[in-house]
Prior knowledge:
Layout: H1 13-18, H2 27-34, H3 51-62, E1 85-89, H4 100-114, H5 124-136, E2 142-146, H6 150-154, H7 161-177, H8 186-191
Helix pairs in contact: 4-5, 5-7
Amino acid sequence: MDKKLLSLGLSDFRDLIEGNYIYVDKTKWIYELVKPPKGLYFLSRPRRFGKTLTVSTLYYLFKGEKRLFKGMYIYDKWDFKPYPVLKLDMTKVSPDLGHIERSLTHYLNRLSKQHNVTVSSDYYSDIFNDLIEELSKRGEVVVLVDEYDAPMLHNITKSELPRIREIMAQFYVQLKNNQDKVHLPDWYKQVQ
């Protein structure tokens, strides 16, 4: 039997599995979290507690990459239907007030190209809206956001924080505006 390697800083699920690294199977809890047909989940844990790895695991799960989960709890319990998955990493957006809107726009344009989606605007919240809308034509969209608050945390002690918060609110409101297309729970839709 091959000895498994100890991962130091890897946070991509596929890299861990294909690279023969030790992975503690957390898919039982992930399954319990996502087994309802729809869901909106907010995972908050301290730094270095595996949030990025969890987002990565969810990404491959919703992409339907069954082979990566062989031998794990979820393997014979999940249908591995592929969804259109939009994975956002907010650390890739400049948190500086003078650049954040342009950086968000650039980042979303790159994601649009990766997903072969044509957008009709050059404004970040409209691009996010277009991206969700166009992906929804392929099926119910799963949106995964890692480091959702990175731009705000970067500015937490600065006078720019209120404006950064407004910008991010304009961005994230597109999830609510598109809740009929995004993988959201029924209870969330009823209370909005």
